[in-house]
Amino acid sequence: MTQKDITFVADFLTEHFNEAPELYNRKGKYFNVERVGQYLKDEDDDLVSPPNTEGNQWFNFLKNSTHLKESPLLFPYYPEKSLHFVKRQMEGVIDQCLQKPADVIGKSVHQAVCMSLYKTSQSEDSTPQLFKLPFLWNDKTSNIHYVLFTILENSISKIYILRRHTDTSRSVSNGILAVDFGNFLNNSINESSDSRCYSCLDAHFYDDETVTVVLKESVEQEGKERVLAQLPLS
């Protein structure tokens, strides 16, 4: 160690570990602990060396503001407590804030309709993920909620569109339908090919009347393996 290192350690001990007679009756050690470490202790006891807030601009600002001084929107300050204590207090407040909305929303949700999309085997093997890429869209003009999705397995070239009215007491025609892409682009890309088939990689609503899809050619050829198409919902 260099002399500079020894001086640094000596200064540290001198500053932080002086005896403090006024703390003799306190629980635990009666010397000043290192001032950063005290904030990290997971204890409810008061800090041994609380910070000096004199001259702090934020506290002075709050003190001189009649509206903010007692505002319930400001999280209370605990100058005598560690960060662990404050963290627990804040978590409690957040949990309390979220509990009421969770109860209200939970009680308001109910099943409007049940639809069987596919069946899986009852074997003990893990069930494969067959439901893919659900995308939600709400048409506020006609009050209809849409869900776009694909089902992997036998219908890789199809995209399904589920429609429900936001008013669950009302129904809409064609509640669920499938769009089969298959070889519908053959005429525009290669008129002589009958074997080209397309599956859907992704699909999103572009607006209330248009769906954008990314199609993949089943037999990939360089430069022709992806197609971006916009389809009118009608």
TrEMBL record:
<dbReference type="GO" id="GO:0005680">
    <property type="term" value="C:anaphase-promoting complex"/>
</dbReference>
<dbReference type="InterPro" id="IPR024789">
    <property type="entry name" value="APC4"/>
</dbReference>
<dbReference type="Pfam" id="PF23405">
    <property type="entry name" value="WD40_APC4_C-half"/>
</dbReference>
<protein>
    <submittedName>
        <fullName>APC4 protein</fullName>
    </submittedName>
</protein>
<keyword id="KW-0498">Mitosis</keyword>
<keyword id="KW-0132">Cell division</keyword>
<keyword id="KW-0131">Cell cycle</keyword>
<dbReference type="InterPro" id="IPR056358">
    <property type="entry name" value="APC4_C"/>
</dbReference>
<keyword id="KW-0833">Ubl conjugation pathway</keyword>
<dbReference type="GO" id="GO:0031145">
    <property type="term" value="P:anaphase-promoting complex-dependent catabolic process"/>
</dbReference>
<feature type="domain" description="Anaphase-promoting complex subunit 4 C-terminal half WD40">
    <location>
        <begin position="136"/>
        <end position="234"/>
    </location>
</feature>
<dbReference type="GO" id="GO:0070979">
    <property type="term" value="P:protein K11-linked ubiquitination"/>
</dbReference>
<dbReference type="GO" id="GO:0051301">
    <property type="term" value="P:cell division"/>
</dbReference>
<dbReference type="GO" id="GO:0034399">
    <property type="term" value="C:nuclear periphery"/>
</dbReference>
